[in-house]
Amino acid sequence: MSLLLKVVRRQGSWFRDGISVARRTTTTTTTTATVRSQSTRAEPEGSVAYESSARPFEEIPGPKGSPLPVIGTALDYSPFGQFPMKTKLMESFKERTKTYGNIYREKIGPMDLVVISDPKEIERLFRNEGRYPERQPLLSVEIYRELKKLPAGIVNLVGEEWQRVRSSVQKDLMRPKTVGAYAALPDDVTRDLVDVIRALTGKEENGGQIHNFTNYVYRWALEAISVVVLDKRLGCLTLDDLEPGSDAQLMIDGVNNFFKAFVNLELAAVGLYRYISTPTWRRFEKAINQWHYVAAKLLKEKLARSTTEEGKPAESDTDFLQSLLSREDVTFEEAMLMAVDLLAAGIDTTGNTLMFNLFCLAKNPEVQEKLYREIAEVVPPGKSIDDKTLNRMHYLRAVVKETFRVYPTVGNNLRTLDRDIVLSGYVVPAKTTIMMANDVISSLPEYYPEPEKFKPERWLRNDVASGGIPPFAMLPFGYGKRMCIGRRFAEQELHLGLIRIVQSFHVGWSGEDMKMENRFVNAPDRDSFVFRERV
């Protein structure tokens, strides 16, 4: 049977109408609760014995907030509160830690949250995840996908179903050798970004500054992941603005609007969107419909191109989608949704991380010069870059780690255990949401001497071997079985972007320093870069 015929027979709602638009009903909450009650996990193989001196959960210190259980401390995170969610969410964790210590408990709306900031306790938590680690579900995404009758997606799956999908697709997504085979594709895209920067800065009147550089970085990030997942260039990297209705612009706008609405839905104190169609929910639904539809259309075109005249899949060593669809333990719909998620996740996360790295290099010219010397030694101009080349870039990796410390794209990890555990002397019951505040740890001098300084050298082997940085102090991609599944591709694109830009330009900065805005993933609030051609 041809791959294309297989698509037609199994496509469901994927390609008839792109993504079907279902009408919201009042049964959403009931449906979600039913699904959750059915997704029980296996009993734990063992449990953590209570320490004889452990104190009860109720004695964990923390802010009291409103006595109303549906509000708690949620007002602190409102636009008029002490820690506005958009701009000061991370500051709240640091201030609360200073006040209450390295473990505290906070009631934010309906969620009972325990926050820990001790690397040893973070390690203990991960060591007791059990067979099927569980994250806090993304409720808004869960509701949306139930309404559209789509698979839950690997982020929201739990138990044996999660294990089935994760173990099946790891070969395509997590093995460095497999991901390394694609390096030449995003490297070509990155060379085009360099050409765009060169053309834009060549105009005498701008003094090397590119206005709205963020837009070009998002276009680069989409093009870099598309050339892997779709085996196709979308034509994002041009000097002209993208056409408003083009596939690339619809994808970028859809993903950006999705994250803006998503963070408001997920952190809402009451969560009215679970019961009625609120304005924020409608913006969220429109945004996710938009990039789902475009991604589905592009994937359909990709599958058609992958089929030979004889109706058989075309053979290729770097056909990512074909490899993903060949996994026997993953349904067609699950594989396609994973490809859609990869296309979307790569825009904001990788793009924002590149921006943070460039800013840190611009503000620390001595670090940038040292990185440039490593690039000149390992990657002479005109030389292609593969995974073996990237493995030699030790200072580059140190720069990226130090940037994650100072400007984390995702500041914290969440877990929910299937067993009780003792953390920092307190009993934390099973099913409690636990946040590991790595962004708090990153600012503490006991783990990072002179934390206010940008020092990539602290991550080099000799420094780490001296016992200076605990292994669980910083985990930008998470840890263990539920580590970010797109990590390898994101790192590869980021490394390529930094190499090619620093190889060609001295990166400077103009004006007020960059700050972070919370859009579930952190995003830069400005992009005042100044590029000067290296000679």
TrEMBL record:
This protein's UniProt keywords: Heme, Iron, Metal-binding, Monooxygenase, Oxidoreductase
Pfam family, one: p450
Cofactor(s) listed in the protein's UniProt record: heme
Highest rank taxon of the organism: Eukaryota
Keyword Glycoprotein in record: no
Residues reported to bind heme: C484
Biased composition (Low complexity): 26-41
Residue ranges, annotated region (Disordered): 26-65
SUPFAM superfamilies recorded: Cytochrome P450 (SSF48264)
Molecular function, one GO term: oxidoreductase activity, acting on paired donors, with incorporation or reduction of molecular oxygen
Gene Ontology terms: biological process: vitamin D metabolic process
Stored PANTHER family: CYTOCHROME P450
Family per record: Belongs to the cytochrome P450 family.
Official protein name in the record: LOW QUALITY PROTEIN: probable cytochrome P450 49a1
Source organism of this protein record: Branchiostoma belcheri
Gene that this polypeptide is encoded by: LOC109469369
